[in-house]
Specification:
Elements: E1 2-4, E2 8-12, E3 24-28, E4 34-37, E5 57-67, E6 72-77, E7 86-99, E8 119-121, H1 123-131, E9 136-142, E10 148-153
Parallel strand pairs: 7-10
Antiparallel strand pairs: 1-2, 2-3, 3-4, 5-6, 5-9, 6-7, 7-8, 9-10
C-alpha cells in the first residue's frame, strides 16, 4: 500500500494468474472517491508511446496563450494551409527564446537574414507576453519528445 498526498491509499491487486500485474486501486477513506488502473492489453505491458504531433521538426506558429496548470504554450500553425486547430506543447526546461522586437524590447530590431529574432530572451518573457494576451509569431524547433527547444520571434514591421 502507498499513501498518495496523505489521503489517498493505493494497492495493487493480484491478477487471476497470481503474477502481481493486476489493477491498482486508489481510494480515500470514508469517501466515494476511487480510481482504478489496469495494464493495457493481455500482456500487462504499457501501451506504446503516445503519438507525437511535431517530433523533430521546425514550424512557423502563432502563439495564442499559456496554460499554466499544465505548463504548455498554445499555438496555431502560421502557414498558408492553416488547419484552424490549436495545439499545445511544453517548453523544454532549457529552451532558448530569441526576440526580434517585442518579446524583449530593446533599442533596435535584432533579426537574422530570414527575419527571425537573435536577441537572447528568457522563457519568462515569452510566457508573460502570452499571459498578457499578446499573440507572438515565431519559428519553433521541436525535439523528439514533442517539447519546444527553440523559439525565434518572427519580425513583422
Amino acid at each position: 500500500m502507498l499513501d498518495v498526498q496523505g489521503k489517498w491509499t493505493c494497492a495493487r491487486q493480484e491478477d487471476s494468474a497470481g503474477g502481481g500485474q493486476g489493477a491498482v486501486v486508489c481510494g480515500v477513506s470514508n469517501s466515494s472517491l476511487q480510481l482504478e488502473t489496469r495494464p493495457s492489453g493481455s500482456t500487462g505491458k504499457a501501451p506504446d508511446q503516445e503519438i507525437r504531433k511535431f517530433p523533430n521538426s521546425a514550424r512557423q506558429v502563432r502563439f495564442t496563450g499559456y496554460d499554466a496548470d499544465v505548463r504548455m504554450v498554445r499555438f496555431t500553425l502560421d502557414t498558408d494551409q492553416q488547419d484552424g486547430e490549436t495545439y499545445r506543447l511544453p517548453l523544454q526546461k532549457a529552451a532558448k527564446v530569441f526576440s526580434a522586437a517585442t518579446l524583449c524590447p530593446s533599442d533596435s530590431v535584432t533579426i537574422d537574414d530570414q527575419g527571425y529574432g537573435t536577441l537572447p530572451c528568457g522563457q519568462d518573457q515569452l510566457i508573460q507576453q502570452l499571459a498578457d494576451g499578446n499573440p507572438v509569431r515565431a519559428r519553433i524547433s521541436v525535439n523528439d519528445a514533442d517539447q519546444i527547444t527553440t523559439v525565434k520571434e518572427s519580425y513583422h514591421p
